[in-house]
């Protein structure tokens, strides 16, 4: 059995690395909180001032150290340091906003990204252009300022907007692919694709019912993607 001598210097360096990594993750946690606060304010304003809440629920997540390491490996990042990780991995902090209808997705996207302190890096509109497997969602990487004792810091946060039907389909698809370790039988892949079409049709029908019940014109049913969508 090989004995490895652990020196005081090794312990000190390990603790410094641990502390630095925890500080690194806290920055993303703070950025995530800022986005959560902005979404919460919009939800409360709609509820109290407009008597309508376009947000069904909000979920947030921070990548674990293991997930970050796995993504570093997948992206082939050699000799990574914190600056390189910040540059290459932009979804360490994530917020998912689930809305009632497609129109609400674009409305919330606009209200969030048009705020003066928000900078939009990338937008991927998988609602206007779904993925081949049927996945639909509106993704945005935004920079949000976090004000620390050392000064302001821009933190990237991935925000996903989707409807209830889109969220249900994505959750089911993820569970199936996890169950089969990404080797999903072809008949289930086809069934998932059919379910994605059914979910899209359900979104359209429910939005039509909502608009008819509230006396809104049907021409608003299919709003075009916002013009500032920069990447699909």
Structure description:
There is one protein chain. By secondary structure, the protein is an alpha+beta fold. It has a domain at 8-163: 2-Layer Sandwich (Beta Polymerase, domain 2). Helix content is 50%, strand content 20%. It has 6 helices and 5 strands; from the N terminus they run αβααβαβββαα. A hairpin with a 2-residue loop joins strand 4 (138-148) and strand 5 (151-163). Helix 5 (164-179) runs antiparallel to helix 6 (186-213). The N and C termini lie far apart (55 Å).
The gist of it:
The protein is of the alpha+beta class and 232 residues long. The protein has helices at residues 8-49, 65-74, 82-88, 102-113, 164-179, 186-213, and strands at 55-62, 93-99, 119-125, 138-148, 151-163.
Quote the CATH topology of the domain at 8-163. Beta Polymerase, domain 2
How large a portion of the residues is in β-strands, by DSSP E? 15-25%
Class by alpha and beta content: alpha+beta
CATH architecture level-2 label of the domain at 8-163: 2-Layer Sandwich
Q: Can you summarize the main beta sheet? A: 5 strands, mixed
What is Rg? 21 Å
The total beta strand count reads: 5
Give the overall silhouette: flat
């Amino acid at each position: 059995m090989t004995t490895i001598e652990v020196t005081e210097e090794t312990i000190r360096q390990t603790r410094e690395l641990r502390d630095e990594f925890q500080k690194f993750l806290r920055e993303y946690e703070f950025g995530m909180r800022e986005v959560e606060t902005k979404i919460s304010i919009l939800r409360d304003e709609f509820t109290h001032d407009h008597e309508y809440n376009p947000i069904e629920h909000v979920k947030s997540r921070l990548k674990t150290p293991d997930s970050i390491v796995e993504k570093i490996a997948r992206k082939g990042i050699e000799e990574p340091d914190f600056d390189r990780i910040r540059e290459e991995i932009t979804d360490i902090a994530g917020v998912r906003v689930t809305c009632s209808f497609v129109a609400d997705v674009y409305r919330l996207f606009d209200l969030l990204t048009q705020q003066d302190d928000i900078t939009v890096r990338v937008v991927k509109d998988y609602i206007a252009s779904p993925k081949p497997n049927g996945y639909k969602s509106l993704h945005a990487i935004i920079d949000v300022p976090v004000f620390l004792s050392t000064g302001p810091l821009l933190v990237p946060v991935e925000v996903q907007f989707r409807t209830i039907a889109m969220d249900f389909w994505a959750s089911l698809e993820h569970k199936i692919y996890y169950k089969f370790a990404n080797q999903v039988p072809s008949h289930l892949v086809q069934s998932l694709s059919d379910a994605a079409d059914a979910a899209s049709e359900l979104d359209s029908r429910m939005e039509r019912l909502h608009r008819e019940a509230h006396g809104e014109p049907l021409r608003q049913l299919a709003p075009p993607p916002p013009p500032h969508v920069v990447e699909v």
